[in-house]
Design goal:
four-stranded mixed sheet
């Protein structure tokens, strides 16, 4: 039987041996691989938006990519298209009179990674996200709730598209 001090020493040595094979680095760190991926992400030009929801997604995506604006001579271009559709999900009312309805905004975005020299599409990915909102008898409240739902969905969609672009850039 080992004394407590010997058990502690063996435990510490075993832990050090086990942890010696582990490496820890930040996901968006400053190591050689991360610098290359960040450089690739910041050298992307995102296409101009044609409507408000596309502009919201584009703004969040450009922010996540670390870009302040478009630059010339980029190695990659991103064509972005976004659409949104509102569906009624549930109507809640008392005595057959509808007071509130729950609506769901479904936003779909497609990113195409394009080589600007050849205009060849390197990858095309589509993602969809939803955001719910309540509609009442008040028109201004309904408009504001829809805009808020669009903004929430745009942020979520931009995050999903950002992850896809980072994966595609890391693979190229």
């Amino acid at each position: 039987m080992m004394p407590n001090r010997a058990k502690s020493a063996v435990t510490v040595v075993a832990a050090l041996v086990a942890l010696s094979g582990c490496t820890v680095q930040p996901l968006y760190g400053t190591g050689p691989d991360a610098t290359t991926a960040q450089g690739n992400a910041s050298s992307i030009t995102v296409s101009e938006a044609k409507n408000r929801i596309t502009q919201q997604v584009r703004n969040h995506l450009v922010y996540r990519l670390g870009r302040q604006g478009a630059a010339s001579g980029n190695p990659r271009d991103v064509a972005l298209t976004v659409s949104a559709d509102v569906k009624g999900v549930l109507t809640v009312g008392a005595d057959g009179v509808s007071n509130t309805s729950v609506r769901q905004l479904e936003m779909t975005g497609t990113v195409s990674l394009v080589d600007p020299q050849t205009d060849a599409v390197l990858s095309r990915d589509t993602r969809t996200t939803t955001a719910s909102f309540d509609a009442t008898g008040q028109e201004f409240a309904n408009d504001r709730a829809r805009i808020d739902a669009e903004n929430r969905a745009a942020r979520e969609l931009a995050e999903q598209l950002f992850v896809i672009l980072r994966v595609r850039l890391a693979a190229s």
